[in-house]
Structure formats: C-alpha cells, structure tokens
Write a structure and sequence with these properties.
By secondary structure, the chain is an alpha+beta fold. It has 11 helices and 12 strands. The strands form 3 sheets. The chain has an 8-stranded mixed sheet, with helices on both faces. Helix 3 runs antiparallel to helix 6 and helix 8 packs across helix 10.
Length: 279
C-alpha cells in the first residue's frame, strides 16, 4: 500500500481492517457513540469530548464509555476536542469521521491514511499536548455522566418549527424503509410541523403506505401520533433517530435546500410537501 493515500468511500473498511490488525490503538475523536469498528482493548487510549453537553445531547455515549473503561481502555475527556485522529501502531488516519453509526452508514467522510515517519512524530506530539490538557475519565467520572438525562440536540423552534405544511418540503423519492435515513426523515417531517411531538396533533406526510400502525393513525388526509408513538419517536425512545441526521433533515425540509440533506442520501430532489398530500 502507498505511504500516504486519500480515502473516502472505503474509509471505514480500511479503518476497521487496520484497527483489528494492530497491537496498539490510540484515537482522539470529538464524539463517540459506536466503537464497533475499532476494537479498543486493555491499554489502548481514547480522547473524547465527554463533557456534560456532549453526553446530554447524545453526541457521546456514556454507556459506551463505561464498556471501554471496564475493558481497560485509558479514557480522557477534552470538551474543546474537534479532531478525528486514529493511530494503529505506525498507521495514522487524520480526517472527518467521529466514532458513530451515522459516520459509517450515512455521511460522506474523508481522511488521509499515512505511515510517514514525520507525520508520526507530529501526531505523538499532538497526543502529548492533548493528554496534558485532558481530564482522565475514571469510574467516578463515568458513574456521574451515566446519570445525566440525555436529550439529543435539536435545532431551535425559531429555526425549524412548528411550521405550516404549505411552507415545508419533502423528498420526491423517500428513502427505502430499511435505509438509515428513513427514520430521521420521517421524524423530521413530523417535528417540522409539530415543533415537539404531540399526541393527537395532525401533520402531513407523503402519499404512501406506512408502518407503525399502533403509533400513528390516519385523520382524513393527515396523520396523528398516538401516545405510544410520541414515546417511541421522542428523544430516549426506541425509535428516536440520531441527532445529526435528524438535524440535517430538519434543515432540508424547512428550507427546501438539498445541500442541507445528509451527504450519502442518493435521491436528493425536494418538492413542496403538500404537493404529495394532494396527489
């Protein structure tokens, strides 16, 4: 393999391969919610933003940090961290990707992979500086943040809703039902019209067939959420979408700008929401 290369489409495959083949793993990553592709083990090091803000907004997962700490991973919290740097033995990745499911499945990411010795020296110095500034994450630290109430970050009502359906947009071709973009898109349309999800309040969707029969009911040309639907789709519920994808879809359906859609979404044409409802 070349000494330095640019990676995008196959980035996570390469990260996973190199991480699994390495003896030592070290990473500085802003937000961490899914470490399934990087098998951190006893003695490895992870620097992350584990501030109260990051944890309560769902950007960093306290339960995952507990698992890593219990596995012997050296953890550190640095609230100002925005870097995404991975070091697997003598292999370095510097790029855009957090440790999250959406990074792997829905977002366009890119990174430089290198084994350059000069870069390795710079990265070692970078980590030394981070560790001098970061707070070690020990068991009392994790115990405390696990007790925080998680309410995934949402754009403000002033920015996103509630809005009149006539001012909103929808995808001309919605994502397939099992696509990771479907649920955040679905919930974004509801939130754009309702502000906060509420039982019995009508909202429009596109013309089609929908599941969730016990969570949503038809009301003329509109739909309403049941009590179980509000619980299911709200932050903390089993059906709550990831905050980063939800934010992207909220921005797109309220502005009509396809540039605001998640980058990996294939069908990106937006049309007026009520155009679908009247067909």
């Amino acid at each position: 393999m070349p000494g330095t290369e640019f990676l995008s489409d196959d980035l996570w495959a390469r990260i996973s391969m190199d991480a699994q083949a390495s003896v030592n793993r070290m990473a500085a990553v802003g937000y961490v919610t899914d470490a399934s592709q990087v098998p951190f083990r006893d003695g490895d090091t992870l620097v992350v933003d584990a501030s109260d803000r990051a944890v309560t907004t769902g950007l960093t997962n306290a339960e995952l940090l507990q698992e890593l700490l219990s596995s012997g991973v050296h953890l550190y919290s640095l609230p100002s961290l925005h870097a995404k740097v991975y070091v697997f033995d003598d292999i370095i990745f510097v790029g855009s990707c957090n440790l999250s499911h959406s990074s792997r499945t829905a977002l366009h990411e890119a990174a430089i992979r290198t084994v350059d010795s000069n870069s390795a020296l710079g990265v070692r110095q970078f980590f030394q500086a981070l560790l001098r500034s970061a707070e070690p994450i020990d068991q009392p630290f994790v115990t405390r943040i696990r007790q925080l109430l998680v309410e995934p970050r949402q754009p403000s009502d002033e920015e996103t809703g509630p809005r009149q359906a006539s001012s909103l947009w929808r995808l001309e071709t919605p994502p397939p039902s099992r696509d990771p973009n479907m649920r955040p898109y679905f919930v974004a349309l509801m939130k754009a019209q309702l502000g906060e999800l509420r039982e019995g309040q009508p909202f429009h969707l596109w013309k089609g067939h929908f599941g969730h029969k016990d969570r949503m009911e038809k009301s003329g040309e509109q739909f309403v959420l049941t009590k179980s639907g509000v619980t299911y789709f709200s932050p903390g519920g089993k059906g709550a979408p990831g905050p980063d994808l939800l934010e992207a879809f909220l921005a797109a359906v309220t502005t009509g700008s396809s540039d605001r859609l998640p980058q990996k979404l294939i069908n990106r044409v937006l049309v007026p929401l009520l155009e679908a409802a009247s067909q």
